[in-house]
Design a protein that fits this description.
Oligomer: single chain
Strand content: under 5%
Helix content: 55-70%
Structural class: mainly alpha
Number of helices: 17
Radius of gyration: 20 Å
C-alpha cells in the first residue's frame, strides 16, 4: 500500500512539523509576549516547554494569541481547567497544542478526534503516547492521520511499525527510526535501509542496541558514521567503514 498523501507539499509540511506545529510558534510567541512586557524567564519556560506553575499558566492564558495558546495547551504544567477551555477553542492550532500535551486525560484527548477523516488535530492526537493501540489501529484504518504521525507515537503497535518500515516513503521511515520503542527486527531493517537519511536518523534513537550503533559507525556513508559516533551507546573505539 502506497501513501495516499505523499505529495511534495505534504512532505514539506511534515518536515517542518514538530507535533504538527509550525516552527515559528516559538518565535512569534516570544516576540508577542516580549512586546506585552512578560518576563523573559516566563517566556523561556513557555517556549521551551518547561512546566508552568498555575499562576504562570493563568497569566499566559489571558492573551488571545494562537502561538501563545498553542504552547500553553501543550505545556505539561497547565492546569486542567485551562486545558479544558483550550480544548474547546475555535482555532484548530490551539487544539493541536492540547492534543500534543503528554498529560492530557484520555477522554479529553479522544474528544479532540474527528472520526473517519483526516484533520490536523487528528494528526496531533495520533502522535500522543496516551492513545491506546486499538484507537491507533482504528484511526490508521480510517485514514485519520498520516502513517508518519502514527510512526512517531511511542505507543504505536509493533505490527504497524513493521508496515511503515516496509511500505512507506523514506521521510516517514526516518521519523519511525527515531521512535524509542521500535522492535528490534525493525531496527535491523532500518539499519540497512537504502536511504542514507533513514540510517542517519536511526542514529538519533537513544535505545539502539550497541551492535547496531557500531554497525552504523562503520556505514559507507560519512554522514551516518559521524552521527552514529555521537550516539551514547557508541563505545568510542576506532571503527572503519563497512565494505
Amino acid at each position: 500500500m502506497k501513501p495516499p498523501r505523499s505529495s511534495v507539499l505534504l512532505l514539506l509540511l511534515a518536515l517542518f512539523a514538530g507535533c504538527n506545529e509550525p516552527p515559528l510558534y516559538e518565535t512569534h510567541t516570544h516576540e508577542f509576549l516580549q512586546a506585552q512586557g512578560v518576563s523573559s524567564d516566563l517566556i523561556e519556560k513557555l517556549t521551551t516547554r518547561q512546566p508552568l506553575t498555575s499562576d504562570e499558566a493563568e497569566q499566559i492564558s489571558r492573551y488571545e494569541h494562537v502561538g501563545v495558546l498553542h504552547l500553553l495547551g501543550e505545556n505539561p504544567g497547565t492546569p486542567q481547567a485551562i486545558i479544558d477551555r483550550l480544548a474547546r477553542h475555535n482555532n484548530f492550532e490551539v487544539r493541536t497544542g492540547v492534543a500534543a500535551n503528554p498529560n492530557v486525560p484520555l477522554d479529553l484527548l479522544l474528544s479532540l478526534r474527528t472520526p473517519g477523516t483526516y484533520t490536523t488535530v487528528n494528526a496531533a492526537v495520533a502522535r500522543n503516547p496516551r492513545l491506546p493501540q486499538a484507537i491507533i489501529w482504528e484511526m490508521h484504518k480510517n485514514g485519520e492521520a498520516n502513517s508518519l504521525d502514527f510512526g512517531m507515537n511511542p505507543n504505536c503497535p509493533p505490527e504497524l511499525m513493521r508496515e511503515i518500515a516496509a511500505n512507506w516513503d523514506s521521510f516517514t521511515r526516518g521519523e519511525l527510526a527515531q521512535n524509542p520503542n521500535i522492535p528490534e527486527d525493525v531496527i535491523q531493517k532500518l539499519a540497512q535501509d537504502k536511504s542514507e537519511d533513514v540510517r542517519m536518523r536511526l542514529t538519533f534513537n537513544p535505545n539502539l542496541p550497541e551492535d547496531v550503533v557500531e554497525m552504523l559507525a562503520r556505514d559507507h556513508s560519512q554522514l551516518v558514521r559521524d552521527h552514529a559516533k555521537r550516539n551514547p551507546r557508541h563505545n568510542r573505539k576506532t571503527t572503519e567503514p563497512s565494505r
